[in-house]
Specification:
Number of helices: 15
Helix content: 25-40%
Shape: globular
Distance between the termini: 72 Å
Structural class: alpha/beta
Largest sheet: 8 strands, mixed
Oligomer: single chain
Strand order of the largest sheet: 7-6-5-3-2-1-19-20
Length: 552
């Protein structure tokens, strides 16, 4: 019986973000990407969401390496959390490795981790696998897809990509190599589905530069631009346009400063002499000589643009007439946060220019026609859509069928499902533990669904604490019950209700005494039920009720 190639996604299917795919063959495993996700609105207090690593920790002796497609958070964000338990070499291109190194420094893991830099076109041997780096275009420099080979066959894993014939740097996606691999024979294709709902082609990054030129030309006001910190090519275009019109450029926001530091050190960004100035020096310059590049395109509460809009930035306040350019599109779920920042900018009489008015942002992901080109070049036997929610995966499957693929050869998987491939077959067989792990401050995984349910309960209905002191000898009530509420009603205006609640608690205690109930858990339960029923009838609310009994 020949060994099978197993492909398991632990993230990135039926969701956006936290991309992580495991390849297994002949006792060896490799991991492609270790991303993180962002919390939903109802995940109170959660900072980030990471994949469940239990399967990887259990098999850590079999893992031969982590391979990273590019340096976005949804592909590298969870690395520090995985490295706490699993220490294996990480292979990445220079820009990606530079961003990972920053993360490792933050988590004090640099000295323990083997970070190996690779170039597009290079092949790495990892156990029974060989992994070839293939250059692709994306909204961050140095993005790659992989050709992963083992005895069963070749799998192409695109990572996030688009086809950009006129990129700012690095050349067009290596379609020639993909075509060559297609001719040699590809067993399976795992391709990015993020933009599969959009017809046509994604515009080139260069088209944004023309919009910038038009907005800088003849502008007499201060210009403030926000974009994604990782989009080095976009920042390069802003700097070039600013230099062309004699403006000095200042940068604010931690992630923006980090990304520029890494990209200039590695030569991905070339800043003309004398253009970059410290933020502290811009006050002395005339308005038409200033350009500020900042973080905050998603309305994040602590970002530099948000702080400027709400007057909490130490060095820059938004002034009337400032031209604020939002060179990014809203990530789904962030629309309200962005809206409130834009409203505040309008309140300050700033001029706001966003992508609705001009081509100020282009996606980093392939649209339908580009995906068809990849399918046509790679000619895979089997197709597994990845990186997308259910509708995207289904639409991508339909697109593959339009390209002549047999529906039986398309597998729409889910996180934790094991896909088994042989040279002639592909099927889902079994599952491994998978899911979401919540990170809250320094705590990883200690906030589970029960705690989140409690937080949701507290957020929606508040809480009531009932404190009673009882005699340890005969169980009589010595003092109380006292009632404390948080987030339920304003007590000073609801004294009548508080008194009624106290009476309900007293009645519950009297019932317990009458029935000779001495077990404290039973007494607590009786108090809780009586108060809960009373409150629901009276207020149609369900606060959390915590009875506390003190023995005296």
């Amino acid at each position: 019986m020949a060994e099978k190639l197993k492909i398991i996604s632990l993230g990135g299917l039926n969701e956006i973000g936290k991309n992580l795919t495991v390849y297994e063959y002949g006792g060896d495993m490799i991991i492609v990407d270790v991303g993180m996700g962002f919390p939903d609105d109802d995940m109170y207090g959660i900072d980030v969401v990471i994949p469940d690593f239990s399967y990887l920790i259990k098999n850590k002796d079999r893992i031969r390496g982590i391979f990273l497609t590019h340096g976005h958070e949804d592909h590298i964000g969870s690395i520090p959390y995985l490295l706490r338990d699993v220490n294996v070499p990480i292979y990445a291109t220079r820009m990606t490795a530079g961003l990972v190194k920053l993360k490792l420094e933050e988590h004090r893991l640099v000295n323990k981790t083997k970070l190996i830099t690779c170039e597009a076109g290079e092949t790495v041997k990892a156990g029974k696998f060989t992994v070839e780096f293939i250059h692709v275009n994306h909204s961050i420099a140095d993005a790659c897809g992989f050709a992963i080979k083992c005895a069963v066959g070749t799998v192409i894993h695109t990572g996030d990509f688009k086809i950009d014939p006129t990129p700012i740097q690095g050349g067009m996606i290596d379609l020639g190599r993909l075509g060559q691999l297609g001719k040699e024979g590809v067993l399976a294709l795992l391709a990015d589905s993020t933009n599969v709902e959009r017809p046509g082609f994604t515009k080139s990054e260069r088209s944004v530069g023309d919009s910038f030129d038009a907005l800088f030309r003849g502008c007499e006001q201060r210009i403030i631009i926000t974009t994604f910190a990782s989009n080095v090519d976009r920042i390069q275009q802003i700097i070039d346009v600013a230099a062309r019109y004699g403006r000095k450029v200042a940068v604010t926001g931690r992630s923006m400063e980090n990304a520029m530091k890494v990209s200039t050190e590695l030569g991905y960004m070339k800043i003309p002499d004398g253009v970059l100035v410290d933020l502290a020096h811009i006050k002395s310059l005339p308005k038409n000589k200033i350009c500020i590049i900042t973080t905050g395109s998603q309305g994040e509460t602590m970002s530099a643009l948000t702080r400027m809009a709400f007057n909490t930035h130490r060095q820059v306040d938004i002034q009337a007439g400032d031209r604020v350019i939002l060179s990014a599109s809203a990530i789904p779920g962030n629309e309200n946060a962005i809206g409130s920042v834009i409203n505040e900018l309008y309140r300050k009489d700033a001029e706001v220019v966003n992508e609705r008015e001009r081509a100020l942002h282009v996606s980093g992901h392939a649209c339908q026609e580009e995906l068809k080109i990849i399918h046509a070049l790679v000619k895979p036997k089997f197709f597994i859509p990845v990186h997308g929610e259910q509708r995207m995966l289904k639409i991508h499957a339909k697109l593959a069928q339009q390209m002549g693929m047999n529906p039986k050869n398309i597998i729409i998987s889910d996180i934790g499902k094991v896909i088994e491939l042989t040279p002639n077959s592909a099927k889902i067989n079994g599952t491994v533990p998978a899911g979401r792990v919540f990170v809250d401050g320094y705590g990883v995984g200690d906030v589970g669904s029960v705690v989140l349910r409690d937080r949701k309960h507290l957020a929606e209905d508040g809480m009531i604490v009932v404190v009673v002191s009882m005699s340890g000898e005969d169980g009589t009530v010595v003092s109380g019950p006292d009632i404390i509420t948080r987030g339920f009603v304003y007590v000073k205006e609801s004294e009548g209700l508080m008194e009624e609640l106290r009476k309900v608690a007293i009645t519950a205690l009297e019932n317990c005494q009458r029935d000779n109930l001495t077990d404290w858990a039973a007494i607590k339960s009786e108090i809780k039920n009586s108060m809960s029923n009373f409150l629901y009838k009276k207020t149609k609310r369900n606060p959390m009720i915590l009875p506390v009994i003190m023995e005296v």
